[in-house]
Amino acid sequence: MTRFFASPQDVSLKSIMLETRDSEHIRALRLRPDELFIVCDGSGTDYICRLGQREDGTIAEIINKHPSSGEPSIKCTVFIAYAKGERLEYAVQKSVELGAHEIVLFESERCIAIPRDLPKKIARLQRIALEAAKQSGRGVIPSVTVSQRFESMINEAVKRSDLTFLCYEDENKLHIKNLLDNYFPPLREQEEYEIKSVSIITGPEGGFAPHEIELAQTNDIPIVSLGPRILRSETAPAVALTAVMYQTGNL
């Protein structure tokens, strides 16, 4: 079914007020009055709806509701270093599709490109996150924000999650699978993992500088390998996030 998002304040007991662009989309789709579509409140609830009585398509009549099935049981924040061109957009899009709860961008010493008009870039990335959330059946729209300095990013990653790890191409001792096997062993029936949130840090095209790795280690952040092949900066977040989702039973 076609999926839309609405603000919680636009949801009433029996109907939902749709945004102008969504009502225009509905008209373009030429949905019949009996055709159903989904409106999500962005807080994890899906509403099964049909067109209301108003001809302008701005009212959705609620038929039923249920928790969104597209939300994982673990909250993953993906910290992604700035990348050039469409690579950053790809990384954000795939992170949302795979279940990221939040995305935080940061500047690393070896970043090749930093957006000139950062507010405009963030607005575009947030739109990409919205469309990816619609396409993948998410129950929330992950936020895209910025951490101004590398040091503040490290502190933020540690504070907001139960487990934080950094992916590094030169790491040859600790593989991501070994780390996740340790923190997320197979569960017995009715058991739950103690760890509810994870921060994943991935670097820029040029890789992390040695002093950045040292800072992460000083903050007791495990440094992990994603395997013997060197991954692109836009591929690493997707691989690391997929590993976490698979290990925790969210794929």
Spatial separation of the terminal alpha carbons: 21 Å
By CATH reckoning, the class of the largest domain would read Alpha Beta
Rg is 20 Å
Sheet/helix structural class: alpha/beta
Short description:
The protein contains 7 helices and 11 strands. By secondary structure, it is an alpha/beta fold. Helix 2 (87-98) links the parallel strand 6 and strand 7 (102-106).
Overview of this structure, please?
The chain is an alpha/beta fold and 251 residues long. The chain folds into 2 domains: 3-67, Ribosomal Protein L25, Chain P; 75-247, SPOUT methyltransferase, trefoil knot domain (Alpha/beta knot), CATH 3.40.1280.10. It has 7 helices and 11 strands. Helix 2 runs parallel beside helix 3 and helix 5 runs parallel beside helix 7 (236-247). The model has no long low-confidence stretch (mean pLDDT 91).
Q: Secondary-structure blueprint of this entry?
A:
Blueprint: E1 3-5, E2 15-17, H1 20-29, E3 37-40, E4 45-51, E5 59-67, E6 75-81, H2 87-98, E7 102-106, H3 118-136, E8 143-147, H4 150-160, E9 163-167, H5 176-183, E10 197-202, H6 210-218, E11 223-224, H7 236-247
Parallel strand pairs: 1-3, 6-7, 6-10, 7-8, 9-10, 9-11
Antiparallel strand pairs: 2-5, 3-4, 4-5
Helix pairs in contact: 2-3, 2-7, 5-7
List keywords for this structure.
single chain; 251 residues; alpha/beta; Ribosomal Protein L25, Chain P; Alpha/beta knot; six-stranded parallel sheet; five-stranded mixed sheet; 7 helices; 11 strands; globular
